[in-house]
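FOLDING PROBLEM:
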Amino acid sequence: MTRAVTPKIPEPPLGDTSPEALAAEILSALKYRLGKDATVATDYDWLTASIKVVRDRIVDEWISSTKEAYDQSAKRVYYLSLEFLIGRLMRDAFSNLGLMDAMRQALASLGVEFDVIARLEPDAALGNGGLGRLAACFMESMATVDIPAHGYGIRYANGMFRQEIHDGWQVELPETWLEHGNPWEFERRERAFEVGFGGSVESITAPDGRLERHVWKPTDRVLAVAYDTPVVGWRGARVNTLRLWSGMPLDPILLDRFNAGDHIGALAESNKADALSRVLYPADSHKEGQELRLRQEYFFSTASLQDILQRHISKYGDLISLPDKAAIHLNDTHPAVAVPELMRLLMDVHGMDFDTSWDITRRTFAYTNHTLLPEALESWPVPLFERLLPRHMQIVYAINAEVLLEARATGRFNGEQISRISLIQENGERRVRMGNLAFAGSHSVNGVSALHTELMKETVFADLHSLYPDRINNKTNGITPRRWLIQCNPGLTGLAREAIGDRFLDDIEAIRELDGFAGDAAFRDKFAAVKRANKVRLSNLVAERLGIKVDPSALFDIQIKRIHEYKRQLLNIIEAVALYDQIRSHPEREWMPRVKFFGGKAAPSYHNAKLIIKLANDVARVINSDPSVRGLLKVVFVPNYNVSVAEILMPAADLSEQISTAGMEASGTGNMKFALNGALTIGTLDGANVEIKEHVGDDNIFIFGLTTEEVAQRRNSSYQPAAVIDGSPELKQAVAAISSGVFSPDDPARYRELMDGLYQHDWFMVAADFDSYAAAQRQVDTVWRDSPDWYARAIRNVARVGWFSSDRTIRQYAKEIWNVPA
């Protein structure tokens, strides 16, 4: 498409941020960096040129921030995470640098619409859910509060997968986010580290027969090559580095084998290296998938540690001072193999003894636990671990001996408790417990909500907590308000600025001043208008992508998160079926129009989760096409849920579904994002819902269901879910309809086993909580009917959740764990 462009003007200095100067820079970047003339440039070219212009401005501050930390010998934070769900970066960077309006005007003067090219930027496929998004929020907040930091992860070429829905079923396709390149990143071929697997360990003895050291001789070796992305803090306060590793072969092609005709074998090493950074969370339902995942975890952990140690030695000369100058944080158990790897590097490469190495390791590492689910606390079969990482297995056994001897010396633990403390699970298949390893190897172990932290002490880490009573602490999660209010909800941001000024832009807790406007009718009307505009935007997206027409005047009831049985999308769907039955059976009642939105991905090998997605789509198909419902209820499953989709769904939500089984959600951050955007929460007393309730007040949240203690009591007693279902007419009818094939006429038995599970065991308390949940939903209807009251409550939610900022969380990490100023 040919566009009219402004005449070329001399390229200005980077300090000039006028639209005219920026337009000139965009044209220059287009010509000299992309080799394109404006008349033939594609939208992707304009996108890339615009990013390059802003990236150039970031680089000066990036170099300055890095050099300043280096010159001042500042302690640095190194955040190791298998996921960084950073989403699109263009709006983030433009907004944080204060260039959004100027860039928009500059592009307009060139005949380019900013919003059109912004939509072309792909979501970086570097994560899956809350864990990765939290890591992204933390990186932005560390830059904002001026903490020198590096994030370390893997540069996945295809991420987890792109989700499409075919006939209601989830279909997994490669996420080709790098198809047009990544204009934000810098390849660092000079920062490449060798990574080994397998092989054997040789013991080197001194002339006197004393064991001197160990030498690991791996049989498989690859390179980890660094790719750096700058992370800009608010108002450009600091620019930190997200360093992602990509796998490369030491020898791209075995030429002698290729010339001998073995073309496939000649490329085998290249393919093996490429697999390390190809897919996030390879399916671990088979041995090959398990092995690849362990390889990935070691791959990025050792590359990161080698990078950190090399940087430290170049500055300080030795590694004795490592804990004083480096805080290495393990985001969940995925990088837990870094504990024995740092020990290996300190002992085998740098010649330290075990005791010194163990002291340095524990003082350097800290570990965040994100789950109480036993299956999510990773463990690896000992034969697999030993085959891939033979030296690390030796070190794990040595660490285990140290920990168990320490426990026995106290005289406070019996044999069963010692067995639970052990880093090696002995009952059944022998496995390396990565959660115990991370706990033992860290000076700090934190939970991510007050409830979760207490449950850690009582459940999964009860015995380790007894051994190390000062190690567990709480750091309730937070979200960055720059992404989750200022950028994704400009209408609400503008309304807040008009009412209370700009102070909340720099200190989100100042948004508390909005609380006084909840009783102001004129402000409520403006707030409602902003919400409606956001709902219209979502309605247009649904119509465009799915061909479903929804009414923005209806209550938008949204549950978007990873599909998992404990998150209980099934409870929400069953309640939708019950509501559908009630609307048809009682047309004389005044039903409140409602649209139930679902979104999220199921792990490829998680059968029940994928079945729940199919059920949501089957229920949607029936309800949405039934004229007797009169449009009072609709169900929508939004495919390929990611950060960019969330940025449209969050501001449009009236009701936020946070309905996990109590005691199973560590924290959640979606609950915080929804509340900050003016949605009321319906939820259990689980995770951070407990603290959100404390902040927003009992009248501004809908709480239902069993508590954590009550869930435990039911599981430990003779809970009879069949009796509960039979005693609840609405639930019984809904379960029977699903089980008998009302929503799956093509396969009447499709959901029978899923529903039978509710009758037989109901581990996630769907039946147990149903009546309480349905009653809370009818309370929602009552409040929604009185719109001034609803919007007053919504405004109070916005005003009272500023505490749930990742800036606050990071300052707590900095002061209480990392010992760095912030």
